[in-house]
């Protein structure tokens, strides 16, 4: 009897151990599935879907667009291409806080500013997934836009050949070639072979003349005539407009920089195991109590609206606003829009720093902290994190803070103070937006381009 009791007790203990073990296992599984239940509820409530971009582009247009994207012949002095600032090896950006345009040399961190040349006022955005149909705006200030009624808005107003442009990415591609600092150059510049830069000689608002001359240069190269013929067999060479080049640039960008395989997109398509637990917790914060999705909403993770988050003033700004970059107000001419910038999309954001419209932050942690306490972060901003040429342009004094604060967007107050664990979880979520396919995009870089200008620098 005694012995029996003993074995019974042992049995009870063993059974108890088993029970408690399985209770632990069950509750871990329950936690995981509770995360999924909670997250699924948030995804449904906010109508979040995975990214989808139509990659079905004409092969011939993509081939033409690829050549143009890497060819410095589009620039006034033959020294800069789209790829210089949106390089496949630099995650479709340039790794710099502020871009270096005409007259610069090199790529990425090593790119050097040309003598007596200004920095570009803004950070070169990544260009992933811009072919998605939800896009209505381009640029940090949304100066290129397709309005709700289909009306096309751009700095070229009625001069934009809107009927020839296939989509908003093509609309955007009309403008880098017209920008003096990005690609065109200054009056009096000489090109790489010592000849006068003929694009720079044209007046700033003479868009049609600029586009015509760019096309004139391109079509003086027989290989381009052949590429255009293949892409646009229905058009005679003299019917070609720079808009057709822009459509090809758009086809290349859409085809080549669209990736739908981030862990988050896989999760949204039903693969629950694609997302690590910390990222799920981060997603619950992002779509829940941290308030992020009130602006970074929908499939693109942006509402495409404009907010002034008191991001530190760095960069040369613009002459017509006393050296400030007043963002959206340059487009609308309304004081209320001063210092407001478009909510950026977030796919691949973990690999596309420096962050913000002017690359003022070097870590996602600082970016998140800035969202939680913008004024404090502005006042405490440490410019020593910037490259020396950028650091020189940092402006902070009482009057700057005052003028910026006047149009502060109170919508950002939804973001609460976040502790370090919550911040880590949000970062884990942001990291889950990185598509593994973006790791090596060097296959997009051609060996040569039709103009024969160098591609590797
Ligand atoms: C000198 C660097 C530079 C060059 C060269 C350049 N870009 Fe950009 N790109 C930028 C910067 C900076 C911005 C943001 C400017 C702004 O918002 O005011 C930008 C914005 C864009 C955007 C908008 C993305 C968005 O969602 O707002 C696209 C697309 C783009 N560039 C494609 C191109 C193409 C195509 C070319 C060549 C025809 C080109 N870029 C040439 C630096 C450059
Ligand atoms: C009120 C709207 C709003 C809310 C809420 C918001 N953001 Fe932002 N976010 C923006 C805007 C606008 C910018 C760009 C500001 C600028 O550069 O001037 C930005 C920039 C960012 C960037 C930098 C992206 C890049 O490419 O440079 C990240 C990352 C980011 N937000 C994440 C978050 C997270 C995480 C949350 C929640 C904790 C959040 N945001 C909440 C509007 C918002």
From TrEMBL:
Subcellular localization: Cell envelope
Any one GO molecular function term: cytochrome-c peroxidase activity
Signal peptide: none
Main location: other
Cellular component aspect of the GO annotation: cell envelope
SUPFAM superfamilies, A to Z: Cytochrome c
Pfam families: CCP_MauG (PF03150)
Coiled coil feature spans: none
InterPro entries: Cyt_c-like_dom (IPR009056), Cyt_c-like_dom_sf (IPR036909), Cytochrome_c_Peroxidase/MauG (IPR051395), Di-haem_cyt_c_peroxidsae (IPR004852)
Family annotation (PANTHER family): BLL6722 PROTEIN, CYTOCHROME C PEROXIDASE-RELATED
Protein name: Di-heme cytochrome c peroxidase
Origin species: Oleiphilus messinensis
Classification of source organism: Bacteria, Pseudomonadati, Pseudomonadota, Gammaproteobacteria, Oceanospirillales
């Amino acid at each position: 009897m005694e012995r029996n009791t003993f074995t019974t007790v042992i049995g009870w203990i063993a059974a108890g151990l088993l029970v408690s073990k399985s209770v632990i296992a069950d509750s871990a599984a329950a936690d995981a599935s509770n995360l999924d239940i909670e997250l699924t509820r948030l995804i449904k409530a906010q109508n979040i879907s995975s990214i989808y971009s139509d990659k079905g582009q004409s092969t011939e247009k993509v081939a033409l667009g690829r050549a143009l994207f890497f060819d410095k012949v589009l620039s006034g002095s033959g020294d800069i291409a789209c790829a210089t600032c949106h390089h496949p090896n630099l995650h479709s950006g340039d790794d710099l806080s502020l871009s270096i345009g005409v007259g610069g040399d090199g790529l990425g961190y090593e790119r050097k500013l040309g003598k007596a040349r200004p920095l570009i006022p803004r950070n070169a955005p990544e260009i992933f997934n811009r072919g998605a149909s939800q896009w209505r705006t381009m640029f940090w200030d949304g100066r290129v836009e397709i309005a709700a009624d289909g009306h096309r808005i751009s700095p070229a107003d009625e001069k934009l050949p809107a009927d020839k442009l296939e989509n908003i990415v093509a609309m955007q591609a009309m403008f880098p070639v017209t920008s003096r600092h990005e690609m065109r150059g200054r009056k009096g510049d000489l090109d790489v072979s010592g000849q006068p830069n003929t694009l720079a000689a044209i007046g700033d608002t003479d868009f049609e003349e600029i586009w015509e001359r760019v096309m004139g240069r391109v079509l003086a190269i027989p290989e381009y005539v052949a590429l255009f013929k293949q892409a646009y067999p229905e058009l005679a060479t003299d019917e070609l407009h720079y808009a057709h080049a822009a459509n090809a640039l758009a086809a290349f960008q859409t085809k080549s920089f669209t990736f739908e395989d981030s862990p988050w997109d896989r999760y949204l398509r039903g693969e629950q195991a694609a997302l690590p637990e910390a990222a799920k917790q981060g997603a619950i914060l992002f779509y829940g109590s941290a308030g992020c999705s009130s602006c970074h909403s929908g499939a693109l993770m942006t509402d495409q609206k404009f907010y002034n988050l008191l991001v530190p003033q760095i960069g040369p700004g613009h002459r017509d606003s006393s050296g400030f970059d007043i963002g959206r107000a340059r487009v609308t001419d309304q004081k209320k829009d001063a210092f407001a910038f478009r909510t950026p999309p977030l796919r691949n954001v973990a690999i596309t720093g420096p962050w913000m419209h002017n690359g003022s932050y070097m870590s996602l942690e600082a970016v998140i902290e800035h969202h939680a306490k913008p004024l404090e972060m502005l006042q405490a901003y440490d410019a020593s994190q910037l490259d020396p040429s950028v650091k020189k342009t940092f402006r902070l004094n009482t009057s700057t803070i005052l003028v910026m604060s006047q149009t502060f967007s109170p919508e950002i107050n939804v973001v609460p103070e976040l502790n370090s664990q919550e911040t880590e979880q949000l970062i884990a979520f942001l990291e889950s937006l990185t598509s593994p396919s973006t790791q090596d995009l060097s296959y997009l870089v051609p060996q040569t381009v039709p103009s024969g200008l160098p591609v590797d620098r």
